[in-house]
Amino acid sequence: MGIHPIRVAGDPVLRQKAKRVRRIDPSIDRLIDDMIDTMRAAPGVGLAAPQIGVSLRVVVIETPEDGLMALINPEVVKRSGERRLMEGCLSVPGYQAEITRSRQVTVKALSREGKEVRLKAVDSLLAQALEHEIDHINGILYIDHLSPDDELIPVRPSIDDRVEAEVAVG
Questions:
Q1: 8 A C-beta contact, residue 100 and residue 110
Q2: What is the CB-side half-sphere exposure of residue 124 using CA atoms within 13 A?
Q3: Which CATH number is correct for 12-167, 3.40.1000.70, 3.90.45.10, 3.40.430.10, 3.30.870.10?
Q4: Using omega within 30 degrees of 0 as the cis cutoff, is the peptide bond preceding 43 cis?
Q5: What whole-number distance in Å separates Cα of residue 131 and Cα of residue 144?
Q6: What angle do CA 104, 88, 75 make, to 5 degrees?
Q7: Would you call 118 helix, strand, or coil by DSSP?
Q8: Contact between 84 and 98 (Cβ < 8 Å)
C-alpha cells in the first residue's frame, strides 16, 4: 500500500477515457488500497484511478453518511433533477466553483469482490461524489461544467480538514 502523487489539471491522463477493468485480480486490489490511502492523505471524499496516473475505471469514495466504497467500471444509469453546489477537486487544487449537478443519481458498478452493485443517491454528498468521480474516468473535470459566467474561487487553507475534504470531492 502507498500514497501516490495526485495528477493535476494539464496532465493528459486526466483527459483520457479510462479503460474498463476486465478482471479483478490482486493488482486491482492493490490499486484500490493505494487509492484509499491517497484519498485519505489528501484529504478528499473521492478519488479516481486516473488521478494517480492509472487509466482504469476504478473509483473510491468515502462519506461520513455512507462509509467507504470502491467501485469498478461504474456508470450512471439514471439521473434526474438539478442542484447548484460548491465543488472542488484534488486535481484542481486551491479552487472551487459553483456548478450544476443532478439531484438524484443511480449508478451500477462492480464491487471489489466482483459483485454487481447498484447505488441510488439523492441530494447528498454521495450523489455529488458519484457524478464527480465518474466524470474523472470519462476524462472530464468539474471545471468543464462551468459556464462562461461562472468563476473559480480561490480556497484558503482550512483549519478543519474534514470541511475542506467535503468540498474537495476528488
A1: no
A2: 18
A3: 3.90.45.10
A4: yes
A5: 13
A6: 40
A7: strand
A8: yes
Secondary structure (DSSP) of 86-140 = EEE-TTSTTEEEEEEE-SEEEEEEE-TTS-EEEEEEESSHHHHHHHHHHHHHTT-
Three cell numbers, residue 127? 450523489
Alpha carbon 7 to its chain's center: 13
| pLDDT one-digit tens code per residue, 89-148 | 999 999 999 999 999 999 999 999 999 999 999 999 999 999 999 999 999 999 999 988
Helix (H, G, I), strand (E, B) or coil at 156: coil
How many whole angstroms separate alpha carbon 113 and alpha carbon 161? Answer: 31
Q: CA 47 to CA 44: how far, in whole Å?
A: 7
Looking at residue 160, its amino acid is D
- pLDDT digit string (tens) for 141-150? 999 999 888 8
Distance of CA 43 to the CA centre of its chain: 12
For the question of residue 133 being annotated catalytic, the response is yes
In the set 133, 151, 164, 166, the catalytic residue is 133
Q: Could you state, in order of their start, the residue ranges of all structural domains in the chain?
A: 12-167
Residue 107 grid coordinates? 449508478
